[in-house]
TrEMBL record, chain A:
PANTHER family: MALTOSE-BINDING PERIPLASMIC PROTEIN, MALTOSE_MALTODEXTRIN-BINDING PERIPLASMIC PROTEIN. The keyword Transport applies. GO terms for molecular function: maltose binding. The lineage of its organism: Bacteria, Bacillati, Actinomycetota, Actinomycetes, Bifidobacteriales. InterPro entries: SBP. One of its GO terms (cellular component) is ATP-binding cassette (ABC) transporter complex, substrate-binding subunit-containing. PROSITE patterns: PROKAR_LIPOPROTEIN. GO terms for biological process: maltodextrin transmembrane transport; maltose transport. Belongs to the bacterial solute-binding protein 1 family. Pfam families: SBP_bac_8 (PF13416). This is ABC transporter substrate-binding protein. SUPFAM superfamilies: Periplasmic binding protein-like II.
From TrEMBL, chain B:
Residues 73-283 form the ABC transmembrane type-1 domain. It is a multi-pass membrane protein. Coiled coil: none annotated. The lineage of its organism: Bacteria, Bacillati, Actinomycetota, Actinomycetes, Bifidobacteriales. CDD domains: TM_PBP2. Its main location: membrane. Keywords: Cell membrane, Membrane, Transmembrane, Transmembrane helix, Transport. This is ABC transporter, permease protein. The chain crosses the membrane at residues 12-37, 77-98, 110-134, 154-178, 211-229, 264-286. One of its GO terms (cellular component) is plasma membrane.
Amino acid sequence: MNKFAKFATILIAGALTVGSLAGCGTSTAKSESSNEILLWGQQTGPDAENAKKTFDAYNATNPKYKVKFVTMKKDTFNAKLATAGRSGKDVPDLAIVASEEVPSWHSQNLLVDWGSSLDGSKVTADAYIPSAWEAGQADGKQYGIPSIIGSWIMYYNKDLVDKYVPGALDDNIVTFDEIEKAGAAAKADGVYSYANSWGFQNYDNLYLQMGGKWLGSNGKISVNNDTSKKVFEEFQKLYKNGWMVPNGEDVTKTFLNGKLVFMPEGSWSLANIKKASFNWGETVVPQWDAKHLVQCSGADQFVIIRSKAARSEEKMKGMVDFMSWMQNNQLEMVRSGANPSSVAMLDNEEYTKMPQSFLLKDENIRKAINIITTPGLSYVNSEIDNRNWDMIEGKADIAQTMDEIQQVAEQKMK
Amino acid sequence: MKKKHQGLWSLLFLGPHMILFILFFLIPAVFGIYIAFTDWDLFGTPQWVGFNNFKEILFDSKSIYHTQFMNGTRNTILFVIFTVPLCVIVPLVIATMIQAKPKLYKLFQSLFYLPTLFAVSAVMLVWSFLLSLSYGPLPKWFGLKINITSTQPWAWVALVLITVWWCVGQNLIIYVAALNGVPVEQVEAARIDGAGNFTIFMKILMPNIRFPLFFTLVTTTIAQFNVYGQPLMLTNGGPNNSTRVLMMDIQNNAFGAGIPTAGMASAMAVLLGLLIMLVSVVQFVVMRRQD
């Protein structure tokens, strides 16, 4: 083998190695040059299927800009959106983000506001549930157009309610007093009256019901207070008396087995609940005071992602047209338990027959919908999820744990 | 001329590995150390802050990063203390038993090695199911009514036993190979001289396999210091952060929710790396002295 052949062999080997490494990178569909709106979502399971059906139906109307929907897991979505958004290259045109994420993405300068592109279109505030529309705002600008509303609600076993707390649902509102009464009456039969399957959802609702405020007098997040303590004392009481499903037990299974009276859960869990062999129903989350209703929810938002390549006016119009079409066509997306965000959907006959429609049918409940977008609360919620059982089970001091959670939120927001 | 040929052939064989080593280890390691001295959100330009990250992590008791580091390091060290001896002794005992070649010893060797082939996520999912209060057979068989993964000391017991079960095969293979290399004459001579099994094990087998043993001790220690998947998936660091190891905080600070604090995460990783180096050096020194 001569020198040249050896050198060439080494070069080829090196090039193959580097080439194979380059091949490891993922390619992302580019949308700037094509007649398509690239939409990223973080839906999975039935939600993803229903969303795809909806966008396929839009494409079937032959719009100038068709929607290409790419869905991925939440972690991947967050990482890819952050990376692409920061670089400004290979970014999607639109992304569906949770309402509480709008301030965070906005603060990282990744979003473009819908601004004047909405002028003269049907996409106006009065076309949406007010709280859902407002959840898309940041610094006085509209960064998100509402998609669907997902809520932390409460499922109940009608037969067990009639047995242990008859009349509790006469006003369709269940209070913590009634949950305690149900727990005391049902305990001897091995039946629970409450469950804590998602810590921060239960905490956020009860905190606001008890009059808690997320921001302190200095305008910064403040949760290490008496209200938080009171919230966890109430949960502790339910747990220590044996009225709450123990930590580690599958809550949905307990409910489906007829061993749980009231189950706070997501409206998105409807498909599971439909398997129940008993009479069941849906209502708002349990209330501290029936006269002061609070019902926390989230409204996914269509946001525009900042791109280095300028989007044409025509494409922006295509995106607004898509939003306008969505107002009347959210039916598929709400089949898995969510509620629509557009007013136009409220009269849809099929939707009004869905069990979750109670949230928007009743004027009082509709007004009680609270979509939280407080900056920094996501840090608190994440910590609550990690630590809530420690406080409930008495393994950690409530005040001290809330101090630590406060410290994390403050430092993360620096 | 012949030397030149050898040089080119060496380059040809080493080249691809060197490229991979430089791209995926050396450059990231040097960059990671640099990042430890900066304030960086992963996307913008890193801002040089000198030793500030290290000062805050080590000395600022009001900082969450100090709390995370102290708690994470403590739990990581506990994990190493609990698992390393078992991950060395258990496979050594099994290897010695296999060495005696009992019936079906090859089957048992394969069975013990099997868990090592599975990814940590798969192992932890299976064990989470087995220990689940609602679905798991183990709490039912043993009549346990507590949630093992959220109650101490059971959470530690579960973490340690599952880790040992998972990684026993790796060292087992090395020990079996090492024991096979022990001269049979030495063992037979000792037996003729009246040595029992324990004496043969301590005086003949152990000295003969001391280098593989030392190798596995160091590699197992390093691996267990980098523990991440087991507590993340089995206990999520609970109860009360008592099984939250340092790698969980490093990952969360760099890639978790919100604005990343990659500089702080890198500084923690550098400190963990220094700790691992220190422990490895101590192990080297002790072993050399004994040698």
